[in-house]
Hints:
alpha/beta, eight-stranded mixed sheet, 36% helix, globular
Amino acid sequence: xxxxxxxxxxxxxxxxxxxxxxxxxxxxxxxxxxxxxxxxxxxxxxxxxxxxxxxxxxxxxxxxxxxxxxxxxxxxxxxxxxxxxxxxxxxxxxxxxxxxxxxxxxxxxxxxxxxxxxxxxxxxxxxxxxxxxxxxxxxxxxxxxxxxxxxxxxxxxxxxxxxxxxxxxxxxxxxxxxxxxxxxxxxxxxxxxxxxxxxxxxxxxxxxxxxxxxxxxxxxxxxxxxxxxxxxxxxxxxxxxxxxxxxxxxxxxxxxxxxxxxxxxxxxxxxxxxxxxxxxxxxxxxxxxxxxxxxxxxxxxxxxxxxxxxxxxxx
Length: 315
């Protein structure tokens, strides 16, 4: 299949491509994984390769990224490392161009890159606030915009890709994490981005879901260092990786706009935001009427979930 050119650029002949005859549920599929050098991203990359995918692995740490690529041996899939800063506005186009030049096609995206800058509202500076939003939310939005545009062009040209996206949210974004308002807000926005993105990109055959992983990473230092084999450690990132791989595969084509919490021996689909039970709102309500009505409104609602703390993993 000849890929359509990226907007404003000529298409190039691919250097190589995944062998469609390789075994595995993801054989023949090409996936971009950001934040692939360590932790969850590394586990995702290795699992996707085990299942036969070709992975364009991205991270800002080029040396660690090369180590991941070197670790992919004796598995059906392959890795092509592409180092860049995901907060660079040109990064999504670079990653798409890399996938098309190297493999000739693109079927999936895992937006996993993350960073943590801790601090309460009264203590977090603007630089840390911008970095959190840039890495977690803005980068994910730009990836959807650029790569979703490519898949839309493919669909309009009659080339079906069965594309799939997995964004990374967090239980911090679903329930809130004490003293981490900016991180929680960014991750909450990602969860909604998955829902709305599923609606928009679904018109062109693309699924968009989000994963809220519970795992030991550099962002979850309170969980301690991993000391056991992954098979004996329920918080190992390797347990979340098969879930992400499944969301990118053929059996998940009817799953979109959902959030999955996975890790620490459990997996679930948390409830989405739902409207509350409506009560009549009087026109031009007086203060006395508000005093009578609003306590009834709050009494009729379910209590909000408790904020997470370092004793409860935010993912």
